[in-house]
Amino acid sequence: MDWRKRLHLAGRARAVPPPPSAGATRAGAVSDAPGVHVTTAQLVSLEMAAREFSFLPRQPVHSVLAGRHASKVRGRGLDFEELRLYLPGDDIRSMDWRVTARTGTPHVRVFSEEKDRPALLLVDQRMNMFFGTRRAMKSVAAAEAAALVAWRVLMDGDRVGGLVFGDEDVTDLRPHRSRDAVLQLLGEIERRNRQLRADAPAGRGGAQLNEALQQAARLAHHDHLVVVISDFDGHDAVTRDLLSRIAARNDLLAVIVHDPFLTELPASGDLVVSDGELQVELGLGRDAVRRGIAGFVDARSRELFEWRHTIGVPVLPLSAAEETAPQMRRLLGQDTPQARRGRMA
Description:
single chain; alpha/beta; Rossmann fold; 2 domains; six-stranded mixed sheet; two-stranded antiparallel ribbon; 11 helices; 10 strands; 34% helix; 18% strand
């Protein structure tokens, strides 16, 4: 087996978090260790942290949702309400210049914000997500990110639903505006998460990822907030086309969950990994292997991040090795010194 096949297997390996001083993990069965699985109670406890970021259209300058290349989340739409005479204090940007020119009297157009923008969360709990070298598995980080988004959406008064998928099927939870809807979603995420174990058989690659995206495309007809939380393992041209289709009529956000191991390889040693069926050894001290791994990781990262420009999908890289809530604040440009002082007050 050449190193490329071994690397693909390594990226899909089952692993458990080691002690802080340890290196990469190996297959094991420490199911109760912190960071291996998540509970609904832990996801509920993130509710307060969700107050510290938002998906509003106007984002801070450091937010990945700010800037060019059609990367902004639009937020709720605007409904035209009335055309009326200009009053002192009105925003000049709302001026209707055509009517003003025709009548000789300043007029403004008044809009009201739409009251509903359903959110659909796609949460990856496939076996490829059951991997981690520090703090938590990717599957746990994905669950935490989903909880934060769900609580934030509910706080904004919108409906929350989701598609939680493993290697065999997809659970469809239609959007509702209630705390019970969020709790049901978090409960389903926990159920899927608890099914992941080191000795489980290999998954189906990107098949279920594409199936979840196909269901999302059918459900999110227009003006939804669709958040895909996954490592996008097994993505292909179909994945890209489905994302483009969803983004054409909705606000789409891709949260790419990753583990830093492949970008921070130890200088030497052998890594033994398993996919539940096969076991292989990677010689990390060999220059050819290290160069090949670096090239593989760099090419994959560039491909995923190009989605920002090619199909206008904002991409948030989320590391399973760091706490999830602070990363979300930082990625959305809302972890400023002023915000930190406000949280400490």
